[in-house]
Amino acid sequence: MTYVGIQTQIRRNNFNSVLLIIAFPLVLLGMVYAFLFFTAQRQEPEIVNQTFATTVPFVVIGTSVWFIIAWFFHNSMIRMATGSKPLERMENKRVYNLVENLCISKGMRIPQIYIIEDDSLNAFASGINEQSFTVSLSRGIIEKLDDDELEGVIAHELTHIRNRDVRLMMISIIFVGIFAFIAQMALRSLRFGAFSRNREGKNGGAVILVAIVISAVCYLIAILLRFGISRSREYMADAGAAEMTRKPYALANALRKISQDPFIEAVERRDVAQLFIENPQPEEKKFSISNFFSTHPPIQKRIELLDQFA
Predict the structure, then answer these.
(1) Is 268 a catalytic residue?
(2) Contacts of 151 (CB under 8 A, 6+ apart)
(3) CB-based contact 81:134 (threshold 8 Å)
(4) Using one digit for the tens of pLDDT, what is the confidence trace for 294-308?
(5) Residues 61-102: pLDDT tens digits?
(6) b/e for 269-301, b at 16 or more Cβ within 10 A?
(7) Distance CA 115, CA 123 (A)
(8) Residue 85, phi then psi, degrees to nearest 5
């Protein structure tokens, strides 16, 4: 893999964040226009344009409120979704020593440290600025990894923070959540409208077909937005951890242990799960089509790359 410097990666992620912020409302408004065009009883451009013009302010206000709430309360939402809580220094000085030593070595501000009460092995970083940056570790990963392995995992998460991966991922999660919500609500409301028309003796089949198509488009865009946040960020974080600790073998060993039991049962929301160092699929979904759009590269491939530097 071609080496990319930390400053280059930061600039790239900041640029991608801006692109997402610009692209999302444009795509959303395009979808609203398509919805109005295909569901209008009279598909005359003037009528559709007039309806679109009156609808736009409500769409912009609604999505802006959603984004602002998610932006400022994302840490609280993530804590609720994962069941994480602050890890007190007196409870585990070992973790604090590892985090502080790594941060000092790179001149970083020490992030908040949280713990997830789960025996499985996983970890993630979150936040949008120095005041909200957080590293969360499961109880299992703290207790089942030795010092070198745990240091490698923490260094991986700190690299996500240094690269501003966490900010980029947060934006993508918010946007994907909006798309998913709109797709679900549009499908339900259109089906209800179609059933109402059927009761009045009118054919609602066309409306249901439009609902299915639009929902499929919304879902596809949501997946592509998520997939657009390149999986190379995990490789970059692995490389950053290896450079930070000078122990690539330690992170490789940690990933081997994580691969045996990474599924945090308390985390039901898959959008939040994509923040983790490994985003496993539940057993019943391991062979689903969503695996083709996985947010993480195969963990075995990551281990093989790290072993090359050992």
Answers:
(1) no
(2) 98, 102, 245, 247, 250
(3) no
(4) 667 889 989 988 888
(5) 888 888 888 878 888 888 888 889 999 998 899 999 999 999
(6) eebbbbbbbbbbeeeeeeeeeeeeeebbbebee
(7) 9
(8) -145, 160
Give the tokens for residue 195: 């059933």
**Amino acid present at 252:** A
Pairing outcome for strands 134-138 and 123-126: antiparallel
pLDDT of residue 60: 84
CATH of domain 82-166+231-307: 3.30.2010.10
**In whole angstroms, what is the distance from residue 154 CA to residue 149 CA?**
9
Distance CA 129, CA 260 (A): 33
Residue reference for tokens 């789960």: 118
How far from each other are the two terminal CA atoms of the chain, in whole angstroms?
A: 16
Which of 151, 157, 234, 278 is the catalytic position?
157
The backbone torsions φ and ψ at residue 134, rounded to the nearest 5 degrees and listed phi first, read: -140, 140
DSSP state letters, the chain? -----HHHHHHHHHHHHHHHHHHHHHHHHHHHHHHHHHH-SS--HHHHHHHHHHHHHHHHHHHHHHHHHHHHHHHHHHHHHHTEEEPPTTT-HHHHHHHHHHHHHHTPPPPEEEEE--SS--EEEE-SSTTT-EEEEEHHHHHHS-HHHHHHHHHHHHHHHHHTHHHHHHHHHHHHHHHHHHHHHHHHHHHHHHHHHHHTT---HHHHHHHHHHHHHHHHHHHHHHHHS-THHHHHHHHHHHHHHS-HHHHHHHHHHHHHS---TT---HHHHTTBSS-PPPGGGTTSGGGGG-SS--HHHHHHHHHTT-
Q: How large is the average pLDDT for residues 4-18? A: 65
